[in-house]
Amino acid sequence: MQKKQQIMLAQNQISSLFIENLNAFYWDTKIFSDCTFSLQPGELVCLVGPNGSGKSTLLSVLAGINLDGLKTFSKSSETIPGPLLKMKTGNFVPVSSLSRKQTAAVISYLQQDEFSTWNFSVMDYVLQGRFCHTENANYSVEDENIAKEAMEQTGISILAERSIHSLSGGEFQKVRIARCLCQESMFFLFDEPAANLDFVYEPKLLEQLKKIAHEKNKGILVSIHDLNLAARFADRLLLLKKGEPLIQGKPAEVFTEKTIAGVYEGECSVYLHPVFNCLQVALN
C-alpha cells in the first residue's frame, strides 16, 4: 500500500472544502450528478433530501471515505474526482493525499451508525477525538480538558465514568457528537446527528452547532430530515434528489413549494413562521 505523504496543514491556511462537477455511482446506479459544493469556515449548512437521495454518500465522499462499490468521477479532466482542500494561497490539496490521521485533524465525520465492541468509559470514548492531535497516542492534560469541555457542551458530563454499553441510544449519540467536537477540526460533517435524540434537544443541537460555526469559524455540514429545523438554523441549504445535481442556496432560495414538491413528490405549503421569522414547510 502506498504511504500517504506527510503534509503539514495549519487550519488557518485552509479556505474551503469542496467538490467540483462530481458524479457518484453505486455500481450502475447513479447517486448524484455534476455536484459542485464548497463548505466554508464560519457557516452551518444543512443537507436535506428524501431517503435514498445520496445524503450519506455525499458526506462520506467529502470525508474522503472509500465505500465498497462507490465510483466517483468528474466531467472536468482537470478536476480530481474527490474532495479538495482549497488553500488561501490558491493551491489545492486532495484529501486523498493525506493520511487518515491528517484528514481527521481537518475533517471530523459522524456517520449514522456506530458500535464499539470495547467497553470504554464515556470519558475515554470522547477522548479518542483528540487522537489525531497526539504523538504516539499520548493524551495531554489539555486533551483531557478539551474532552471535558465537549462533554459539557453536549450535557453528558455526568456520564463521564459510565460504560458506553450502559447508555441509551440517545445518550450514546450525544457521546459520539462530543467526540467529534473535541476533535476540533476545521470542518465537521454530521450524518443525522439528531437521530435518537429527544425532540426538545434537536433545536438545541442545531443552535449549538450554528454557534460553534460562527464563533469558532468552523465549517459544519449537517444531514437532517426535519426541513423546518433546517430552514430555521441553516445559513445555507443543500437539497438533494437521487441522480440529480444539488439544489443549493439560502433557505428562501431553496425552499419553494415547486422545488420541494418536485423533490419529495408531495404537495406542500411554505409559510413564514410567526415567532422565528423563518420559512417553514407544511404538507397539504
Q: In terms of per-residue confidence, which ranges show pLDDT below 50 for 5 or more consecutive residues? A: 1-5
Helix and strand element order: EEEHEEEHEHHHEHEHEEHHEE
Secondary structural class = alpha/beta
The overall average pLDDT, rounded, is 91
- Biggest sheet layout: 6 strands, mixed
What is the number of E strands?
A: 13
Q: Note the gap between the termini.
A: 55 Å
What oligomeric state is this?
single chain
Approximately what portion of the residues adopt beta-strand conformation? Answer: 25-35%
Q: Share of helix among residues? A: 25-40%
Put simply, the count of helices is 9
Inertia-based shape? globular
Strand line-up in the sheet with most strands: 7-8-9-3-10-11
* Rg over alpha carbons: 19 Å
Main features:
globular; 9 helices; 13 strands; alpha/beta; five-stranded antiparallel sheet
Account of the protein in words:
This protein has 284 residues and is of the alpha/beta class. The N terminus is likely disordered. Strand 8, helix 6 and strand 9 form a beta-alpha-beta unit. 29% of the residues lie in helices and 26% in strands.
Helices, strands, pairings?
Blueprint: E1 14-26, E2 29-39, E3 43-48, H1 55-62, E4 70-74, E5 84-87, E6 92-94, H2 100-106, E7 107-110, H3 122-127, H4 141-153, H5 169-181, E8 187-191, H6 201-215, E9 219-223, H7 227-233, E10 236-239, E11 247-249, H8 251-254, H9 257-264, E12 268-272, E13 279-283
Parallel strand pairs: 3-9, 3-10, 7-8, 8-9
Antiparallel strand pairs: 1-2, 1-4, 1-5, 5-6, 10-11, 12-13
Helix pairs in contact: 4-5
